[in-house]
Amino acid sequence: MKSSLKYIAAALVSAAIASGAQASVTTLSATANSALLEGKVNNGRSDVLASEYGTEQNDANSVWLSVLKFDLSSLAGMNVSSATLNLTTFLNHSNSPYLHQVYSSSDDSWTEASITGLNMPATSTLTLLSATAIDGTSGTYSWNVLSGVTGQNGLSGNKILTLLVKPDLSQAGTDYGPHFYERTALSGAPSLTLDVSPIPEPESWAMFAAGLAAVGALARKRKAAAR
Prior knowledge:
Elements: H1 2-18, E1 24-29, E2 32-37, E3 49-50, E4 52-53, E5 63-71, E6 78-92, E7 98-105, E8 126-134, E9 140-144, H2 146-150, E10 160-167, E11 178-180, E12 191-198, H3 202-226
Antiparallel strand pairs: 1-12, 2-5, 3-11, 4-5, 5-10, 6-9, 6-11, 6-12, 7-8, 7-10
């Protein structure tokens, strides 16, 4: 009898969870993006993205980086179990692999029209998420950005996610880094790929609680009958 009741309880748990947890894959496109020459007053470029070190003439320490903005409001009420940023390269200044880092930022106030290498999100607003090696092979490269999507800079905050991609400056080398397609490109545009599932509705847990109560009542009835 105890075994059968355990099976019933397990079935109720599974039914309650399954009723509100149909997993799916969702893709989001960037709503804004720009390439910036760090520390320079020049306006950002929205026609191409980049993550480069030492590629500017007469400046061996120049850093090109990219900022991207994503609207996460469509994910409200969802569990997110994985999230990747996807960028596609079409040119690289080096064939050797170099690490490029992605950060989330708490500063979402920038726009494509006004951002520059001087007023870009400050270092104090950045949180490192992950790094990916990029070589001279043109293709799509991905970064794990789950903690940025679900954290204070994403769904736990205002549901607007700013990501910043730049070279890992701790590695040796210069004159390296790729160009990426930007958000209006017909193919290879930046995207977020997310595994999501609905958060179970209160009705699902109410059904679960009612089922457990019924199991308890059945157990008491059987115990009384056995005396």
